[in-house]
DNA sequence: CATGGGTTAAACATCG
DNA sequence: CCGATGTTTAACCCAT
């Protein structure tokens, strides 16, 4: 029955994941190959069959800025979705076990009805799960078909390499593009994919046709590969153009029929060239996608609710969100008892009554309009704090992002550990509590536990700043702030360059600032602004950048330090080749610093708390 | 090129 | 014996 099927699916997925090995564990990675570019591949990544990319790889992808914003977006979303699925699996398994247990217990008692009830629940759940999956697929498919996912090699070059290292460049790029209205018609030869280019308002004169002809032909989205007729297969062994299917032009509202791919292409280039109409239609389509995403989000939410409900035995009223205070933890009282024992550690903040999620985006928006205009912050004595609390600001502000996105936080283990400890009421944590903090705060650490846990332990013992204190109940770890700071100074993390850039690129300042403000001001993803399909990380990104900048500005390049460190040696991506980044542009966006002014922090709500027991889910 | 910090792996020792 | 907790050592990577 359905149940079996679903299980099957889950198992399969699980298996798949297992097959995805740790991808180069940091060492041995093929030396040279790291910087070998070659476009095309990123695409394959973005469109890769739903397979969970190892965190490292993801990280790498993000940091290397190989992908276009859209791609990143999609990737992120995919990962999100997959994560969810994984969690579902987990949950499902647990649920199964539980049920099984109960079943056994009740077997004798013959509590038929109860069992049935559960059975029903299970089924419902199952359905929900499938539904979500379907939605996700649909959504992805849609995106792919739109051609919105195609990339433009040229734009992968980001002005702010040095700057954004630890951050996600996607939105930045997007923003940058939007703001400057870049019209790069970089149709370099290696431009293997070309979709609608919203960023270039004016028709790319000549080459358009040729390009389409040649590039579209390569449009091969394996997942969509339609066997189709073999008629003109000899030409393009695969005419699986997203806009062409079953001899019909799939352009929204078109439906023109064509016998062969060629004529279709012609039609496409003639009828759906880059003009106002097409653009408009494209936008509409984007909205459609948005709607889908929204729906997906809603369904996810529902699922979430269901899960929570089912798992939280009767104790429905959740511990109200606690205003944790990462920043002013100095005076922090007793918040967030590390002891709460919530049922299930989901990556997503369980249905907070807050705003209705829009695809991933709002869930992330960490920035409130306020933060921009006024630094509310009662806290944060800028200078000293910065010094003291390296990661806090960033962490705080991007908390939600990191909690949900499987992105490796750009902080060193030491910083994180310290943060964890300082955050605790007693300023001390047991190893296990530290683990829990990691998993709680970072989606990234909900995976491959063996690795990072080892790292955590390693760091604890390695750094003098972490002091072990014997305790009645074992031992706890504390931070020796002095020691910690002692080793800080030398890590500026590219600040110098940053600052320089910042100062020299005032030209773009205003524009960018405006852009940021705008984007921040409205948490709702602008439906119309170019192709920024739900940009979850935008806000946090902006914030991060701002932070970074502030830091840089604050102490010149003398020390800053915050979020620098990290950047772990990401293993080489074997399947991905990066594209040679344009040595060109680099310096524009930096100016967005100007927006500066310390952002405050927000209350953090810790909606759930997983604790003891199992730290990791995989 | 050398160096130091950060990350990851892994071997080992303790302890409950 | 096992697993969690700590310590160490080594190899890499990367930025300086």
Automatic annotation (TrEMBL):
A GO molecular function held by the record: RNA polymerase II cis-regulatory region sequence-specific DNA binding
Subcellular location per the Swiss-Prot or TrEMBL entry: Nucleus
Residue ranges of the annotated DNA-binding region, renumbered to this chain: 408-481
The Fork-head domain, residue ranges: 408-481
Keywords for the protein's UniProt record, in alphabetical order: DNA-binding, Metal-binding, Nucleus, Repressor, Transcription, Transcription regulation, Zinc, Zinc-finger
Region feature (Disordered): 16-41, 181-212, 333-355, 551-618
Extent of Acidic residues compositional bias: 609-618
SUPFAM superfamilies found in the cross-reference section: Winged helix' DNA-binding domain
SMART domains: FH
Keyword Nucleotide-binding (UniProt): no
Biased segments, Low complexity type: 346-355
GO CC list: nucleus
Polar residues biased stretches: 556-566
Main location: nucleus
Domain of life: Eukaryota
Protein name: Forkhead box P1b
Organism of this sequence: Salmo trutta (Brown trout)
Upper classification of the organism: Eukaryota, Metazoa, Chordata, Craniata, Vertebrata
């Amino acid at each position: 029955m359905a149940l079996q099927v679903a299980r099957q699916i889950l198992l399969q997925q699980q298996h798949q994941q297992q097959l995805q090995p740790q991808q180069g564990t940091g060492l041995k990675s093929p030396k040279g190959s790291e910087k070998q570019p070659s476009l095309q591949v990123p695409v394959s990544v973005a469109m890769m069959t739903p397979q969970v990319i190892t965190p490292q790889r993801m990280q790498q992808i993000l940091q290397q800025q190989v992908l276009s914003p859209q791609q990143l977006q999609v990737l992120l979303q995919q990962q999100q979705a997959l994560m969810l699925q994984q969690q579902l699996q987990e949950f499902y398994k647990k649920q199964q076990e539980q049920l099984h247990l109960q079943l056994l217990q009740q077997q004798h008692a013959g509590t038929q009805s109860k069992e049935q009830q559960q059975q029903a629940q299970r089924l419902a759940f199952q359905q929900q799960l499938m539904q979500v999956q379907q939605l996700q697929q649909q959504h992805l498919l849609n995106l792919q078909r739109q051609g919105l996912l195609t990339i433009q090699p040229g734009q992968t070059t980001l002005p702010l390499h040095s700057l954004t290292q630890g951050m996600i460049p996607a939105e930045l790029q997007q923003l940058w593009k939007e703001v400057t209205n870049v019209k790069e018609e970089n149709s370099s030869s290696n431009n293997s994919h070309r979709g609608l280019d919203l960023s270039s308002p004016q028709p790319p004169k000549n080459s358009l046709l040729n390009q389409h002809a040649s590039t579209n032909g390569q449009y091969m989205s394996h997942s969509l590969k339609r066997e189709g007729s073999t008629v003109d297969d000899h030409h393009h062994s695969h005419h699986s153009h997203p806009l062409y299917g079953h001899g019909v032009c799939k352009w929204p509202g078109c439906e023109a029929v064509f016998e062969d791919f060629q004529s279709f292409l012609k039609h496409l280039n003639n009828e759906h060239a880059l003009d106002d109409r097409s653009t408009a239609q494209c936008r509409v389509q984007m909205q459609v996608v948005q709607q889908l995403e929204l729906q997906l989000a809603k369904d996810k939410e529902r699922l979430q609710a269901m899960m929570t409900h089912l798992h939280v035995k009767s104790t429905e009223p959740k511990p109200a969100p606690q205003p944790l205070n990462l920043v002013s933890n100095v005076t922090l009282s007793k918040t967030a008892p590390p002891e709460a024992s919530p049922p299930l550690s989901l990556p997503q903040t369980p249905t907070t009554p807050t705003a209705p999620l829009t695809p991933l985006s709002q869930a992330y928006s960490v920035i409130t309009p306020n933060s921009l205009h006024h630094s509310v912050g009662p806290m944060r004595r800028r200078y000293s704090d910065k010094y003291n609390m390296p990661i806090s600001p960033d962490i705080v502000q991007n908390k939600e992002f990191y909690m949900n996105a499987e992105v490796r936080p750009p902080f060193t283990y030491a910083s994180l550990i310290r943060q964890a400890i300082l955050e605790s009421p007693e300023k001390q944590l047991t190893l296990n509590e530290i683990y829990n903090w990691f998993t709680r705060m970072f989606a990234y650490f909900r995976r491959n536990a063996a690795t990072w846990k080892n790292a955590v332990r390693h760091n604890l013992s390695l750094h003098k700043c972490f002091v072990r204190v014997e305790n009645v109940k074992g031992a706890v770890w504390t931070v020796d702030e002095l020691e910690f700071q002692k080793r800080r100074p030398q890590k500026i993390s590219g600040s110098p360059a940053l600052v320089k850039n910042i100062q020299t690129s005032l030209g773009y300042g205003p524009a960018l600032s405006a852009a940021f403000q705008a984007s921040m001001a409205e948490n709702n993803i602008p439906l119309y602004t170019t192709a920024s399909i739900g940009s979850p990380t935008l806000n946090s990104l902006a914030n991060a950048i701002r932070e970074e900048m502030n830091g840089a500005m604050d102490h010149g390049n003398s020390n800053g330090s915050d979020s620098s460190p990290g950047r772990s040696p990401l293993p080489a991506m074997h399947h991905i080749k990066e594209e040679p980044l344009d040595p060109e542009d680099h310096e524009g966006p930096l100016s967005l610093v100007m927006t500066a002014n310390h952002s405050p922090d927000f209350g953090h709500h810790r909606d759930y708390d997983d604790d003891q027991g199992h730290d990791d889910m995989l």
